[in-house]
From TrEMBL:
Family classification: Belongs to the metallophosphoesterase superfamily. Purple acid phosphatase family.
Subunit note: Homodimer.
EC numbers, comma separated: 3.1.3.2
Protein location: Secreted
Record PANTHER family: PURPLE ACID PHOSPHATASE, PURPLE ACID PHOSPHATASE-RELATED
Residue ranges of domain Purple acid phosphatase N-terminal in the record: 24-128
Protein name as annotated: Purple acid phosphatase
Length: 419
């Protein structure tokens, strides 16, 4: 039998400042030339004035004030968050950095001005401002869902692939400009501390490039993104349906040719085994309501998570492949390509045994998608595995503005004959 023996005692270990600002994360603001910076600290608004010091790299630095929010146990829905899952979240600060110059490199650091006249600072970070809508420059986008988190010591292994994805993105940090994480972030399940674990895990990424979550419409150079909320009604006549149609309809395709739709749950196609058992190959009532909009406004690609694998579907309309090509698409937009990119890190999902005719490529592994817009007429998509960062599936789209204007299927303007 083994009996542990005390061999040494260390000095008392404590944080230099347990209230220090941590976990900076960037996101787009309400306009293309605005960046939001959000972080967490232990400082209440009554103790300090939070702000961000920022400016062009090597240039004059200015200070922008930050707002402060928090929440308490009673504002939570129920257990376990109100009981064993509760932990004081500290305070969440957000500042808006405005009137950024396109593609300019900026530096920033988080600051707190204390009542005694002293300052508390974070380390200095940097980011590159977004290109202006329609700008013709190299633009690179990462998109995936369902990553989760994991402890490096293996103490928590519910999302086993999440560190592979995180580490690969950190390794590739110079090769992309923005991240879209389309749902299922830490799988906190009512345990607040797991949000801190997740934001710590992705900090190297989220402090350097915009890390976009939730639902919104946003511009990034030649891209226009419409991100739907698959937890709320998207059927025709609903508030969200009107939101989706408005943002698909108002994009200027001459300036922003690449129109991307996304949602967490597969609202189009997935050959996941449980969807197959239901006979729908989709989230209930998904594409029935939305495919008319995808076709009318010539959506290039739809991205989804929720199903923990990778799958690419042919350009499709009303359950029919409208293009026999596998890797290069050109000319008229006669169907939307749908892609499931839910292999960010959580336990993997099974496919049906036999792939449907519309399923071009399937992979039960961890990975993420990457979009690269080279110009207004050429787009590359790549699926990369998190384990090695290599490309395992890809396709290109080449077309000009006239192809987007072409009349096909339900995208034609309705007319009546003269009487």
């Amino acid at each position: 039998m083994f009996f542990p023996k005390l061999v040494a005692v260390s000095n008392f270990i404590a944080f230099a400042n347990p209230k220090a600002p941590v976990y900076p994360r960037l996101a787009h603001g309400k306009s293309w030339n605005e960046m939001t910076v959000t972080w967490t600290s232990g400082y209440d608004i009554n103790e300090v004035v939070p702000f961000v010091e920022w400016g062009p790299k090597g240039g004059k630095q200015i200070q922008s004030a930050a707002g402060t929010l928090t929440f308490n146990r009673n504002s939570m829905c129920g257990q376990p968050t109100r009981t064993v899952g509760w932990r004081d979240p500290g305070f969440i600060h957000t500042s808006f950095l405005k009137e950024l110059w396109p593609n300019m490199r900026y530096t920033y650091r988080l600051g707190h001005f204390l009542s005694d006249g002293s300052y508390v600072w974070s380390k200095r970070y940097s980011f590159k401002a977004s290109p202006y809508p329609g700008q013709n420059s190299l633009q690179r986008v990462i998109i995936f869902g369902d990553m989760g988190k994991i402890k490096r010591n293996g103490g928590s292994n519910y999302q086993p692939g999440s560190l592979n994805t995180t580490d690969q993105l950190i390794k590739d940090l110079d090769s992309f400009d923005i991240v879209f994480h389309i749902g299922d972030l830490p799988y906190a399940n009512g345990y607040i501390s797991q949000w801190d674990q997740f934001t710590a895990q992705v900090q190297q990424i989220s402090s350097t490039v915009p890390y976009m979550i939730a639902r919104y419409a946003t511009d990034y150079g030649m891209f226009h993104f419409c991100i739907a909320d698959s937890e709320h009604d998207w059927r025709e006549g609903s508030e969200q349906y009107k939101f989706i149609e408005h943002y698909l309809a108002t994009v200027d395709r001459k300036q922003q040719p690449w129109l991307i739709f996304a949602a967490h749950r597969p609202l189009a196609y997935s050959s996941n085994d449980w969807y197959a058992e239901e006979g729908s190959f989709e989230e209930p009532m998904g594409r029935e309501s939305l495919q008319r909009l995808w076709q009318k406004y010539k959506v290039d690609i739809g991205f989804y998570g929720h199903i923990h694998n990778y799958e690419r579907v042919c350009p499709i309309y009303q359950n029919q492949c409208v293009n026999n090509e596998k890797s290069h698409y050109s000319g008229t937009v006669n169907g939307t390509i749908h892609v499931v990119v839910g292999g960010g890190g959580s336990h993997l999902s099974d496919f049906t045994t036999a792939p449907p005719i519309w399923s071009i490529f399937r992979d039960k592994d961890y990975g993420f998608g990457k979009l690269t817009a080279f110009n207004h007429s050429y787009l590359l998509f790549e699926y990369k595995k998190s384990s090695d960062g290599k490309v395992y599936d890809s396709f290109t789209i080449s077309r000009d503005y006239r192809d987007v204007l072409a009349c096909v299927h339900d995208g034609c303007v309705k007319t009546t004959l003269p009487t």
